[in-house]
Amino acid sequence: MDLAMALLAAAVGYLCGSISFARVIARVVAPDTDIHNYESPIPGSSHTIRMLAINATTVAVQLGRKWGIAVGILDVLKVAIPALAFRLLVPEQPYHLAVSLFGLVGHNWPIYHRFRGGRGLSAIYGGFFVTDWLGALVTTTLSMILGMAVFKNVILAYMGGVILMIPWIIIRWRSWPYIAYVVAVNAVFAIGLIPEAKAAAESRRIRQEEGEDVGDPWADQTSPMGKMLTSWGQRVGLFRQPTDQKQADRS
After folding, report:
1. Paired residues of 41 in beta bridges
2. DSSP one-letter code for 115
3. How far apart are CA 178 and CA 161, in angstroms?
């Protein structure tokens, strides 16, 4: 593997991943909306928590689901397209793995926006579809089934697909570059989720101090992604609703 080509692939991935389509879409469709300072209300409390992520789910919560979906698709493509280009142009070497990994790094910490970006799920699957499209479909489907239907665990449903990439790659590819890639992707993804985890823990602490029913321990409603997954889970009966929310629904 040529070092210069590997560095080029990493640079291309990072610069493409740093493009914030959440900001682009928001600027075009709702220029008066400040998506950088979203205060998420804590259910059952008068407090709010500032969310630091700027991504598809942030846009979906503030501007509507269709715009969130549009951002998610563009975030997938911004990594998938350059990764596919390297895979087609240099098929004998896995430079596309460097594009995919650093596309994720750019998405989470974009150089164009003071290193404040998203949490990486769209970027991860953009690269993984190019690496192994079947694996992307299988791991995503399996994580949703296990997380939402079997264990009723939003965190598992959200992160499970990324975690399952490791055994999938080990069994299917048995290649050290590919294994190193998925392990690094999991590490970057976990680091990127630390702010969300802190916000969820703070939300639960505040609600418990105020004597509120916090509902299921994994049904977080603080982050945009947590709100979307938890809302779906409650509608189909996978999670019980907190007492205050049930009363609000009846009224």
Report:
1. 48
2. T
3. 16
- Please tell me the predicted confidence (pLDDT) of residue 114: 92
3 found inside a domain: no
Question: Is pLDDT of 26 > 60?
Answer: yes
List, for residues 167-221, the tens digit of each pLDDT value: 999 999 999 999 999 999 999 999 998 887 787 777 778 777 776 655 544 455 4
Q: Report the length, in residues, of the chain.
A: 251
Chain centre to alpha carbon of residue 211: 31
Q: What is the C-alpha separation between 176 and 237, in angstroms, rounded?
A: 42
Q: CB 89: neighbour CB atoms within 10 A?
A: 10
Give the Cα separation of 145 and 71 in Å (integer). Answer: 25
**What's the token pair of residue 235?**
């509608």
CB 1 within 8 A of CB 38: no
Note the pTM of the prediction, 2 decimals.
Answer: 0.84
What is the count of structural domains for the chain?
1
Domain span at 199: 12-246
